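call fold(seq) -> tokens
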Amino acid sequence: MTNDIKVKISNLTKIFGPKASSVLKHVDNGMSKDDLLKKHKHVLGLSNINLDLANKNIEVIMGLSGSGKSTLIRHINRLIEPTAGSIVIDGEDVIQMPLEKLRLFRQQKTAMVFQSFALLPHKTVLDNVCLGVHLQGITGDEAFNRARKWINRVGLDGYEDRYPSQLSGGMQQRVGLARALTCDTEILMMDEAFSALDPLIRSDMQDLLLELQKELHKTIIFITHDLDEALKIGDQIAILNGGELVQHGTPQDIIMNPADDYVKDFVKKVNRSHVLQAKSVMTLEKPSKDSKNISVNELESIDSVLCEMLRQNADSCVVKNANGDDVGYLNKKDIAEVVQPIEAVEN
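ret:
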């Protein structure tokens, strides 16, 4: 994970309605989404969003329907014009770009994978995958060679001449992913990309994305309403509620320190032992000298740690970092206290 900022979103507000600019002052003065609709017949899509998205991370933006997550991602390539605010990418404000520069930015800097696959039914898999690079001005053998590389990479070798109607939903989404990767852009945006897939296929696509990210190190902005999906793939997670950003942090932060009741409702049924890592649960209290200890890596999940403790009949474990240094300690009591659901802790 990197700390360099790729996308800096500052004071971003979006109001839907014919007089958005004139009612902006009411939002700036704290008027709620419900009151804005009731009193001024305008809809508050986003309210003063400040969010830094790190370079070469998978940054997940999540929330329930109507939270503003899809509205936010469409601002990043300016498919939606904001009412106020800026989006700076590599030192340039996308909101201020003239149309010609914006067109080049969309072609060369960003690619998008959609929930609905967005494939042309009358074109083959190969032709669909080539669409993006054709818009970039790349044609002929170079375009086809790049497309075939990514068709093979997403597991569709041999399907180049098939049409979308001849493919399953999971295969169609692989075509959409291959099309985006063929464009070789720095930023990959995925709007509910796996939401329409069956659970097993969805899990396979998540695994494929993580595998590709280890190789490509792109900045991926991933929209979802599914916390399990966010926790599995996200380096960081931003949670929206009613157009407002309520929390942004690592999966460990979100699980251990939910910012408010809205986030608590999201995380309370999560299998915490599967998500939490040893470094998030460890203490500095050394085990007794007569206890049997084992060593574990700080990034191991609590599930893995507990299984290893049971396998070796250990009482506690020493948590080590990547350099092999001791950084903390864990025992079964610590684990039991942390992994129980939030509602059980509160009761």
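The chain has 16 helices and 13 strands.
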